[in-house]
Each structure stands twice: as structure tokens, then as C-alpha cells.
């Protein structure tokens, strides 16, 4: 495992006034207690942004915020359930109350959904749609309301490589992430006139708590040998022969959040090790 990217960024020194500099910017990040959301929060804070972290796991979000503050950054942790519009409105309101503005919204919280489509229950469908699709839409709506009066902003959503490679057993998940991609592209068209860019990541296999969810039993346990075999199979899906890490996605978030991507909107950015290669 290489050194955490945020440490590398501190060491390299993000130059003020350059494309990746986020000093003076305010970012809200959902799903910030773990995985890609945590790495993104730390990355944006390392680049100078004040970050507001939202997660259903508020203790986890607080742990990440504390680490950012220890590293010299500015962070606030809040409890957010992205399935609830009111939570996302309050989340953005907390950023405005503390900083007076919102420049960057990262809708990263998401859940997996496993099983053949013929067996999917209404409850499971609602669970996946609620977090992945409604959560993303509500986050975008709350952010747009705050950004439009200022005529600028960057929204980063999270789709998945699963939308490019239909695979048995992940149909509901892939459908929710295809919806995120289309929401992103449509919002890019609608929000562009307000100076707001809307993009998404489509991560490939990235080692976080999320991966191998289908290998866990009802109590959350999994067979470690089976998990190791699964990781090796995922590794071979990349022509590079590597697995993704949360920082690999966080670098994409930094790019899309910053002025380095000022001419980029409506893009679905694929950091997936070449797992899906397309025009
Ligand atoms: N890891 C991968 O290989 C991969 C690949 C493609 C897409 N993604 C997407 O990336 C995003 C982040 O995934 P990750 O790998 O970091 O997973 P993760 O499980 O490590 O982190 C997800 C975070 O979201 C939070 N969360 C879940 N439901 C929530 C809710 N209702 N409200 C608020 N927070 C909630 C969790 O508490 C957790 O902190 C997800 O949208 C996921 O679908 C991940």
C-alpha cells in the first residue's frame, strides 16, 4: 500500500493559484466516513478546501474530520442519511452557516445490491434506489440551490464501471448507477448556464469496505480465502494488473472539483485500470 495521497500532496505542496488549489473553497462530501468518500475528503482538505463531511455513520465521519483537523485542515462532521431530502438540505445549510458558501458538492455515499433480477424484492429495489439515486438527486438539488445564486460550483457524483459491463447478480446496482450517470449528464446541461459543472466518476474495482459485499453472510462475515481469490480475479480484469485504491478515485474528485477541470462538464470519468475501454 503506498503512502496516503493526502500526505503526498502536502509534501508536494499544492501551489496556491494553480489549477488544483482549493484554498478558499468549501466542499460537502457524503459517504465521507469511509472508502472513496473519506479519501476524497482528505484529498480536498489537503488541497486547501474547508470540508463538511456527511455520513449515516457519524462517528466515522467525526473520526475522519478529527484526522483532517490534526493535519492542519478545516473539517466539520455531520449526520446525514442521503435517502432523506431534509438531511441533504440541512447538510448544505450547515456548510453555508459555517462558511457562507458552497463551491463543491461530492455525492459519494452509495450501497451495493446483489442478486439476480428475477429475485429482487421491492424492499431491496427501494433500498438501492433510495440511497444511490434519490440520495444523488437530493444532494444535487440542495447544492444547486446554494450554488446558483453565486453563479459557480462543481458537483461530483459517483456512478460505476458496472454500467458499462452488464454482469449477472448486480443488475439493480448497475441500474441505479446508470441512473446516476444520466442524472449527471442532464444536470450538466441544465446547470451549465449558471456556471455550475456536473460530472461523475465511474470507478472500477476499488478496494474499500464496499467490495466483496456479495461474499458476506447475513451476519456480515465472509470467508477470507474466498475474498482473496475474488480480489485476484478482479486484479486480472485490469490490463495493468492492479487493483484500485480509494486514493485513485480521490485524485479524480480533486480534478473534477478544482479549476483544473473548468472546461469539463457532463463527463463520466473512468478510473478503472482499463477494466472497460471505450471511445
Ligand atoms: N469500491 C468500488 O469498487 C466502487 C466501484 C464503483 C462505484 N463505487 C461507488 O463509490 C461510492 C463509495 O463507495 P466506497 O467503495 O467508498 O464504499 P464504502 O462502503 O467504503 O463507503 C460508503 C460510505 O457511504 C456511507 N453511506 C451508506 N449509506 C448511506 C446513507 N444512506 N447516507 C449517508 N451515508 C451513507 C457509508 O456509511 C460509508 O461511509 C459508492 O457510491 C459506490 O457505489 C465503488
TrEMBL record:
SUPFAM superfamilies: NAD(P)-binding Rossmann-fold domains (SSF51735). Gene3D superfamilies: NAD(P)-binding Rossmann-like Domain. Pfam families: adh_short_C2. InterPro entries: NAD(P)-bd_dom_sf, Sc_DH/Rdtase_CS, SDR_fam. This is Unannotated protein.
Amino acid at each position: 500500500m503506498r503512502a496516503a495521497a493526502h500526505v503526498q500532496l502536502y509534501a508536494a505542496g499544492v501551489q496556491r493559484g494553480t489549477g488544483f488549489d482549493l484554498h478558499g473553497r468549501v466542499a460537502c462530501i457524503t459517504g465521507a466516513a469511509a472508502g472513496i468518500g473519506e479519501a476524497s475528503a482528505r484529498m480536498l482538505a489537503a488541497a486547501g478546501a474547508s470540508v463538511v463531511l456527511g455520513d449515516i455513520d457519524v462517528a466515522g465521519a467525526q473520526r475522519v474530520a478529527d484526522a483532517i483537523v490534526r493535519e492542519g485542515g478545516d473539517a466539520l462532521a455531520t449526520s446525514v442519511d442521503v435517502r432523506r431530502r431534509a438531511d441533504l438540505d440541512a447538510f448544505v445549510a450547515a456548510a453555508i452557516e459555517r462558511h457562507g458558501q458552497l463551491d463543491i458538492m461530492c455525492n459519494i455515499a452509495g450501497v451495493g445490491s446483489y442478486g439476480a433480477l428475477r429475485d429482487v424484492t421491492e424492499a431491496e429495489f427501494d433500498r438501492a434506489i433510495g440511497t444511490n439515486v434519490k440520495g444523488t438527486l437530493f444532494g444535487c438539488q440542495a447544492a444547486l440551490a446554494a450554488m446558483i445564486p453565486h453563479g459557480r460550483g462543481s458537483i461530483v457524483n459517483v456512478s460505476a464501471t458496472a454500467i458499462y459491463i452488464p454482469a449477472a447478480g448486480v443488475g439493480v446496482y448497475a441500474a441505479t448507477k446508470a441512473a446516476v450517470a444520466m442524472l449527471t449528464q442532464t444536470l450538466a446541461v441544465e446547470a451549465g448556464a449558471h456556471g455550475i459543472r456536473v460530472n461523475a466518476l465511474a470507478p472500477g474495482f476499488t478496494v474499500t469496505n464496499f467490495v466483496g459485499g456479495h461474499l458476506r453472510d447475513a451476519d456480515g462475515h465472509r470467508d477470507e480465502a474466498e475474498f482473496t481469490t475474488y480480489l485476484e480475479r478482479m486484479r486480472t480484469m485490469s490490463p495493468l494488473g492492479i487493483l484500485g485504491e480509494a486514493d485513485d478515485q480521490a485524485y479524480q474528485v480533486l480534478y473534477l472539483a478544482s479549476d483544473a477541470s473548468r472546461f469539463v462538464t457532463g463527463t463520466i470519468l473512468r478510473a478503472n485500470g482499463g477494466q472497460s475501454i471505450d471511445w
